[in-house]
Write a structure and sequence with these properties.
There is one protein chain. The chain is α/β, with parallel strands linked by helices. Helices cover about 40% and strands about 15% of the residues. It contains 19 helices and 27 strands. A hairpin with a 5-residue loop joins strand 2 and strand 3 (about 345).
């Protein structure tokens, strides 16, 4: 308790001087407690410093006035023990008298006086067990039989203690450092790799020092080991080999190597070498040799020819499908296809095998069951109109090949960055603008416009070949063509699902042209399209010329100028309109002149300046049914 109070007084940060007072009542148990505490404190100091201390360092504040012993003396002495027990000048001896060293038995007897009786008995029992364990591994001691055992007396305990002390003393003299054994015992524990490496280096260093002292003589090495280590060495040498498969395997190899006489047949080795090289050459492996320089041209020729042959066989297997074989999956027990050249494995039948089966069927069934891919390749060599159209009328399979999606020309909308797109990313039959697609088209081609906006610069577009333009047939407002000039149509064609209007960007320059002009006998059939000419001073749609016109359904025409018309027919033009809408024209909705003929069915006229105008008697308007009754 007093030590704990003293520690609390000397807490961290204490800068003042601390005075400690112990209040002890005279002639009471407190004096004995204080004396016992001093003795144990001195004993702890003695054990920690292994007895290397001065007498003055363990005296209690000069109570007994004992003088210091010599600082050069080591071990236990009479004066030091007197200082431990607080006895000074015992028996009239002078403090300056030379002290004699005590034996180990005297020291242990004195220390036992400080312990309780139970602790002393436990210590003697533990010492006896340690001595028995050492004797068990000591081969120099003859153990008694079970019948010869007698009661253990104090003399036998003393003998065992002496044997244990002797073995410990022997071990201490021979082994350079006990830390080596302790490190080996601890080495099995899991530690950090860095710490293990340091300990291993330290052990190697200590082992080298121990080996340099003991030497390489087997007798000295055995003498330096304690009984337990000798027993372990004997187990490793005489017992473990008889239970180790590795020992028997190595022993058998050694016996076979000792007893077997190896006969080397050089001719057989040379023959095997030639066969291996020939096999490698047949498999196509590259051989590294050092031939005669004169034979190099011939070998190069042979190598090139063989390499070409192997490549040709690989291509042949690829075209004929011989590189595909059927195997069974181990888990699912289902068949799959395996490529012996590339190592590819698939569940479905390879395309080349399907093509071969289709070709075989075509040879047996005729042209009507030719493979679709082959028919598409044939149709690609024909002009879309009229050759491809005529071939498509042969049968359903030929029609499917003639209208294959690969023949359609696609135009990228502005929203997809068509104008800034790299040529390598555009792809086959894909174009930046509608003008590029029309210039590359051949008669009968189809141009597909995806959802988005398309810009057509002045002067516009000219279509003089049969052509089809397809947009969104459900909602034409999704496909918008911003037209700055006009579209001149001079041949037959088809248009569907497209909105054509003037640009909504104010440029300050108003166009005076029509949106769509059908001339020179051009015929354009149309379905679900919108024509909006707001922002221009011309007609919205004009059909001029003999037989110019077409059949229109669900079309919307608006935005004609007040001095023009939404729809103009002139010079023997002919047109049929069904379910169409003509509205929001500032001038005339429909103007017919020059022997033009127009048929209107279920058409609607809304918000026009004048719905229809007929300039002469040669104009014919039939089925004039309108929504507003004009």
């Amino acid at each position: 308790m007093d030590a704990q109070a003293q520690d609390r007084a000397h807490r961290i940060g204490q800068t003042r001087e601390v005075h400690i007072y112990r209040m002890v009542t005279e002639h009471s148990i407190e004096e004995n407690i204080l004396a016992k505490a001093k003795q144990k404190r001195n004993l702890d100091f003695l054990v920690m410093d292994e007895g290397k201390f001065h007498a003055a360092s363990v005296m209690n504040n000069g109570e007994h006035g004992a003088e210091e012993d010599s600082g050069d003396e080591e071990g236990f002495t009479t004066g030091k023990l007197r200082n431990i027990f607080g006895i000074a000048n015992y028996g009239g001896e002078s403090n300056h008298e030379e002290e004699t060293a005590l034996s180990k038995d005297q020291i242990e007897s004195t220390m036992n006086m400080l312990e309780d009786e139970d602790d002393v008995k436990a210590m003697q029992s533990a010492r006896k067990e340690a001595a028995d364990e050492l004797q068990e591994f000591d081969e120099s001691i003859q153990f008694k039989q079970d019948g010869d055992e007698t009661d253990t007396t104090d003399d036998s305990i003393g003998k065992q203690d002496k044997v244990a002390k002797k073995s410990k003393k022997k071990k201490k003299k021979v082994v350079p450092d006990q830390k080596v054994i302790d490190a080996r015992q601890i080495g099995g524990d899991d530690k950090d790799s860095t710490k293990d490496d340091d300990e291993e280096k330290e052990l190697e260093k200590e082992f080298a020092n121990w080996q340099s002292k003991v030497g390489m003589d087997a007798t000295k090495i055995n003498d330096s080991l304690n009984p337990l280590e000798l027993y372990g060495l004997k187990i490793k040498e005489s017992v473990d080999p008889y239970f180790s498969p590795y020992y028997f395997a190595e022993r058998k190899k050694l016996e076979e190597a000792t007893n077997t006489t190896i006969e080397i047949d050089l001719d057989e080795i040379e023959r095997m070498k030639i066969e291996e090289e020939q096999r490698a050459f047949e498999d196509g492996d590259l051989l590294s040799t050092f031939p005669d320089p004169e034979a190099l041209p011939r070998q190069r020729q042979l190598y090139s020819r063989e390499k070409a042959r192997l490549r040709a066989e690989t291509i042949k297997r690829k075209l004929t499908g011989q590189n595909w074989i059927t195997k069974i999956d181990e888990l699912s027990k289902k068949p799959f296809y395996f490529n012996i050249d590339t190592g590819e494995a698939i569940w479905e039948k390879p395309n080349v095998l399907q093509m071969l089966e289709a070709n075989e069927a075509a040879r047996s069934g005729g042209w009507r069951i030719l493979p679709l891919k082959l028919l598409v390749s044939i149709m690609e060599c024909l002009v879309p109109f009229p050759d491809r159209n005529q071939c498509g009328a042969t049968c359903r399979r030929w029609h499917e090949a003639a209208t294959d999606i690969s023949f359609v020309k696609h135009v990228w909308p502005v929203e997809m960055g068509a104008l800034a797109m790299n040529d390598k990313k555009i792809g086959k039959n894909h174009f930046r603008t509608i003008a590029d697609a029309i210039s590359a088209a051949v008669p009968g081609d189809t141009i597909e416009l995806g959802d988005g906006h398309y810009w057509v610069q002045y002067p516009g577009l000219v279509v003089d070949i049969p052509l089809r333009i397809i947009g969104d047939e459900v909602d034409p407002s999704h496909v918008v063509v911003e037209l700055s000039g006009d579209i001149l149509w001079k041949n037959c064609g088809w248009m569907e699902g497209v909105t054509i209007r003037r640009p909504r960007i104010a440029t300050g320059i108003a166009s005076k042209s029509d949106i769509l002009r059908i001339e020179s006998g051009g015929r354009l059939d149309l379905f679900h399209c919108i024509f909006d000419n707001h922002g221009s001073f011309g007609n919205t749609v004009s059909m001029i010329g003999n037989n110019s016109g077409g059949r229109w359904k669900k079309a919307s025409i608006s935005g004609g100028d007040k001095s023009k018309s939404g729809l103009l027919l002139d010079d023997n033009a002919f047109a049929e309109f069904t379910d169409c809408e003509i509205r929001d024209n500032a001038g005339v909705g429909v103007t017919c002149r020059g022997a033009a003929v127009i048929s209107l069915e279920d058409c609607r006229f809304e918000r026009n300046g004048v719905d229809t105008v007929v300039d002469d008697d040669t104009v014919s308007i039939s089925d004039y049914n309108t929504a507003n009754g004009h």
